[in-house]
Design brief:
With 240 residues, the chain is α/β, with parallel strands linked by helices. It has two domains: 38 residues, no CATH class; 181 residues, Zn-dependent exopeptidases (Aminopeptidase, 3-Layer(aba) Sandwich). It is built from six helices and nine strands. It has a six-stranded mixed beta sheet with strand order 5-4-6-9-7-8, with helices on both faces. It has a three-stranded antiparallel beta sheet with strand order 1-2-3, with no helix packed on it. Strand 4, helix 1 and strand 5 form a beta-alpha-beta unit. Bound molecules: zinc ion. The site of zinc ion has 6 residues, from loops.
């Protein structure tokens, strides 16, 4: 047990009616819950970043809106267990935003916390800041519990800039070993309610047991975020 590190802590949810025991042991985390099942924010998780490419020149003069889907009273898709979509979206979106900012991108976040933002306000943010790209981040659900994989959506009749951004994000996710269902089109309001290039990334299915447990972990969230950010940076560099 030499050099073993562990700690034990008890957290109360906001409602105070459930307790969560978090045991961190040799870098692995076990979360046990009791009491009523409130929507649970993913616990921090030891980050193990995957292989990263060498740093490249910074991006300047480009603006990207990062939209963490749902929030507040709009919890998003229910998944297996107490985890709900709005928290997964926020965790991944904040990481993507930080990574882009570190590379010099001007980042606008539609939300930074568990706040409800109307869809039209999210969309209009892209116009207001003349964004080079809006990236809306979500997690999926389906009646079929076997459904898995990330999906990148663009509006029907999307511009070439939206298409190339989606293609690069899809390629980057695949390169990171994350299963994708490819680029598809949909009439999501956050894609069609403004005139700027935009994509919506469904990061995986919360209704699949395996994918939900991955999406709940900080390590996997970081991996997805890194892949999305890499795809966005590839796209922005190609705009030059
Ligand atoms: Zn969603």
């Amino acid at each position: 047990m030499h050099r073993a590190r562990y700690y034990f802590r008890i957290l109360r949810t906001r409602a105070g009616c459930a307790r969560r025991w978090t045991l961190v042991f040799f870098g692995a985390m076990i979360v046990l819950t009791s009491g009523c099942q409130q929507p649970t924010k993913p616990a921090p998780f030891p980050t193990r970043p995957g292989p990263q490419r060498p740093p490249t020149s910074p991006i300047s003069g480009r603006t990207v809106v990062i939209d963490a889907g749902h929030g507040g009273k709009d919890t998003g898709a229910p998944g297996v267990g107490p985890l709900v979509e709005k928290y997964v979206n926020l965790a991944i979106a904040m990481r993507v935003a930080d990574l882009l900012q570190q590379r010099g991108v001007n980042v606008v976040r539609t939300r930074r916390d568990d706040t409800f933002i109307p869809l039209d306000d999210r969309a209009s943010t892209a116009d207001r800041y003349a964004a080079d790209l809006l990236v809306s981040i979500h997690a999926d659900s389906a009646p079929n519990p076997r459904a898995t994989g990330a999906t990148i959506y663009i509006a029907g009749g999307a511009t070439n800039q939206s298409k190339t951004a989606a293609t690069r994000i899809n390629a980057s996710l695949s390169s990171a070993g994350i299963k994708t269902r490819g680029v598809r089109s949909a009439k999501f309001r956050v894609l069609v309610g403004h005139a700027r290039p935009s994509v919506l990334v469904e990061c995986g299915y919360l209704t699949n047991t395996v994918e939900a447990s991955r999406l709940a972990s900080g390590g996997y969230q970081a991996r997805v975020a890194q892949a999305i950010a890499t795809g966005v940076l590839d796209h922005l560099r190609a705009l030059r």
